[in-house]
Amino acid sequence: MAWFSALCDDDYEFLGQPDLELASSWDHCRNIVLTADRYGFDNVLLPSGYALGIDNTTFAAGMAPLTNDIRMLLAVRCGELVVPQLARQMATLDQMLHGRLTINIISSDIPGEQLDSEPRYRRSTEVMYVLRELLDGRPVDFQGDSIQVSVDPPRIRTVSGRSPLFYFGGLSPAARQCAAAGADVFLMWPDVTSGVNEVRADMDARAAAVGRTLRYGWRSHVIVRETEDEARAAARRLLSKLDDAEGEKIRKRSLDSASAGVARQAELREGADDEGYAERHLWTGVGRARSGAGAAIVGDPDQVAAKIAELRDDAGIEAFILSGYPHAAECDLFARYVLPQIPHGRLEFEPHPVAI
Questions:
Q1: DSSP letters along 175-240, please?
Q2: Which residue range(s) make up the domain with 178?
Q3: Looking at CB atoms within 10 Å, which of 112, 152, 287, 356 has the fewest?
Q4: pLDDT over 60 at 256, yes or no
């Protein structure tokens, strides 16, 4: 069970209404992570946006001595750093975290660049391959389409001597093939359970074709209150000051706003009922003012826990990355009402090599 620290200017009391007290800053984002650590969450996602918020790698390094048990899921944007430098940076950070680093591979365009889907995801596969080889302590002589490198691994190693787990998400054909080749945990944005199972079946087949297996994660928001009526009222309140034009502006400013995953979130939203529910406890309203994961699990503690159990038991989801608005306040509510009902712990397994 993981939480989310809003490093990319994505924290609100009312969606689409910026609040200086919730703006991304060292103090604010540190408080979110410390809250999640104190409550016993297993991991925390640290997102990355070039033009938004604060730098996540610097933030993770600053949080290392302030946290005790929580892992950090650091988003790494492929193409921003040369891979040998990235390997050294990740190994150093893992040392500072005493082995608590996990990596979220991001394939968005970087500022000033616009690649077609195929070469962009091919680059990400090459990054994962070279990064894993170096973090596993092996020299690399690789001549790819995007990366050409012949180098020994950095002297500094991770605490385990092995690469951290790679989390990855994306729904386009190129993204799915990239994930099958290199990801350890395939992250899905919210969908109805049947849709999750369709994606999982396809990804299982793609991974098997290259001699690998995948584990699965779910990234969504959550709104939990003592009663379902109160939770639904909180969802309505969250949108009560949203201007639709501002919401569209927020969605479009993300570099992944035209991705297949974002398109699926829009499709889910368009098929929802008048209040925005695609299923009784899956509310798509968040996507009206946010690119990326655009839905929330909404309900009372038992209903939210039951939805998570359904995804775990019926769709094979093992990793949940949740968030809510405001992030620290919803973290507190979820931790008190739901987290004690859910068996959880760190996701531990031996990852497969990247299939290049």
A1: HHHHHHHH-SEEEE----HHHHHHHHHHHHHHHHHTT---EEEEEEEEEE-SSHHHHHHHHHHHTT
A2: 2-222+299-341
A3: 112
A4: no
Q: What is the total count of domains within the chain? A: 1
Bridge partners (DSSP) of residue 185 are 167, 215
Please provide residue 234's backbone torsions phi and psi, each rounded to the nearest 5 degrees.
-65, -35
pLDDT (tens digit per residue) in 134-185: 999 999 999 999 999 999 999 999 999 999 999 999 999 999 999 999 999 9
Measured CA distances, 164 to 100, 155, 331 (Å): 9, 17, 25
CATH of the domain at 204: 3.20.20.30
Could you say which DSSP state residue 256 is in? T
Identify which of 254, 273, 253, 257 has the alpha carbon closest to the alpha carbon of residue 265.
257
Evaluate whether residue 321 is within a structural domain. yes
Q: Is residue 317 part of a domain?
A: yes
| Ramachandran angles phi, psi of 134, nearest 5° | -70, -40
Q: Calculate the alpha carbon distances from 247 to 194, 242, 314 in Å.
A: 28, 7, 33
Least confident of 12-16, 39-43, 221-225, 319-323: 12-16
Which tokens go with 291? Answer: 């690119």
Residue 353 domain flag: no
Whether the ω angle into residue 111 lies within 30 degrees of 0, i.e. cis, is: no
Residue 246 belongs to some domain of the structure:
no
Collapsed DSSP state (helix, strand, coil) of residue 242: coil
